[in-house]
Specification:
single chain; about 170 residues; mainly beta; six-stranded antiparallel beta barrel; 14 strands; about 50% strand; elongated
Length: about 170
């Protein structure tokens, strides 16, 4: 049985058959060593040959073999990209797999805000639920720009100091 790990979501079509993707937050990835990625089509993973990948600013772009223009790649938009278990260790390092988020401590500076109790996908981006000691829960987007540091080994998430959580709500 082949298991898969989610690594990205295809956001939009780029130029010359490239697609723009959003990587799973906390994921450091190197696609140079693998030949195939798996794209999810209605709960079925289809192997697609990776022709090229590159980073530009804070975006990642992929080119699949034999998909050369906007019309060809339009079928990919909004779909999730996976790697097989065999390729997982080749392409990722310091990864914080979504299932491992549960139980992580969330800090802003030195202040403990709470513990991650849930992770789920929304159309806009992934979201984590955080429970405070007093039993109050709140949600924050699980995107790189929200976090100063993601420490997978120690299960610690540190929010950017300028990320606004309204502490003054009644």
């Amino acid at each position: 049985m082949n298991d898969f790990y989610l690594i990205a979501k295809i956001l939009s079509a780029g130029k010359d058959g490239f697609v723009k993707v959003r990587l799973v937050p906390g994921l450091n990835i190197n696609l140079d060593s693998i030949k195939f990625l798996f794209v999810d089509f209605w709960e079925q993973k289809k192997a697609i040959e990776l022709e090229e990948s590159f980073n530009l600013k804070q975006s990642v772009f992929l080119k699949f073999k034999n998909f050369d223009d906007d019309r060809d790649i339009s079928v990919f938009i909004g779909r999730n990209i996976f790697v097989s278990t065999n390729d997982f260790e080749k392409v990722v390092s310091d990864v914080f797999i979504n299932q491992n988020l549960i139980g992580s401590k969330v800090y802003r500076g030195q202040d403990l805000l709470g513990t991650v109790t849930d992770y789920f996908e929304t159309p806009a981006n992934p979201v984590i639920e955080i429970s405070e000691e007093g039993g109050t829960n709140f949600l924050i987007p699980y995107v790189d720009s929200v976090f100063e540091k993601i420490d997978a080994e120690n299960k610690i998430l540190i929010l950017n100091s300028d990320f606004g959580i309204d502490d003054d709500e009644d």
